[in-house]
Structures are given as structure tokens and as C-alpha cells.
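This entry is retained here.
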Amino acid sequence: MIGRLNHVAIAVPDLTAAAEQYRGPLGAEVGAPQPLPEHGVTVVFIELPNTKIELLHPLGEGSPIAAFLDKNPAGGIHHICYEVDDILAARDRLTGAGARVLGDGTPKIGAHGKPVLFLHPKDFNGCLLELEQV
């Protein structure tokens, strides 16, 4: 059901400094910051030959990334995103198997302009999973 790894998301306390680490010493292609108010984050994508790294920084009141950074002040891996062909079929299959979808179960539009859902980390070995329809 899951397809390729779309990205690994890292929550960072300083978005500019984190982007510069990838741009400078690592020599990666770094995108421009994208505010996503509906998700409470600003993101920067790092393009790699085989996947992407998504840097996450809090945006607005109640950002889930702010709470994550309160617990992990230096930042850290926040979630892993896998691609799926049909997000509603994937959601139904996973909930039928007992997995919990965060929120109301309705996909939201993510940073790539495609539908996304998040799955509870307690159901996946402590790892928050994002599914993105491709």
C-alpha cells in the first residue's frame, strides 16, 4: 500500500540556520520558506537525489511544532512521510486495522498541494507517519 519515502521532517528551533547548514556545508538544494498557516508551520524543503528533508518551524499560536520543540529544544525528527496512490482507501484500510488518524480523518492539503493525513505515533512504533497522495 505505501509507496516511496516522500520526506523526513525535522523540527528546528531556527529555520534560517538549519536551512543554511544544508545549503552551505552540505551543499544541498534548499527551497524557499513556505508558510502553511492551516498546519501551524513554516517549511523549507531540502531536495535530495532520492527523497526530501522537510525542515519545520512553528507558525502561529498553537503550532504542534512549538509543543514538539518545548519537549525537544534542539529539534529532532518529527515525522516520516510515505506516498500512497489513494489516500481515502489508505485511511480506510488503516483504520479498519485499528490505526488512528489524527484530526477528524479528513485529508488536508499539504505543502506539496496534495492531500495528506497523519497517523498516531503510538500505532507505529512511536513514529508519527504522514501519508501523501501522489
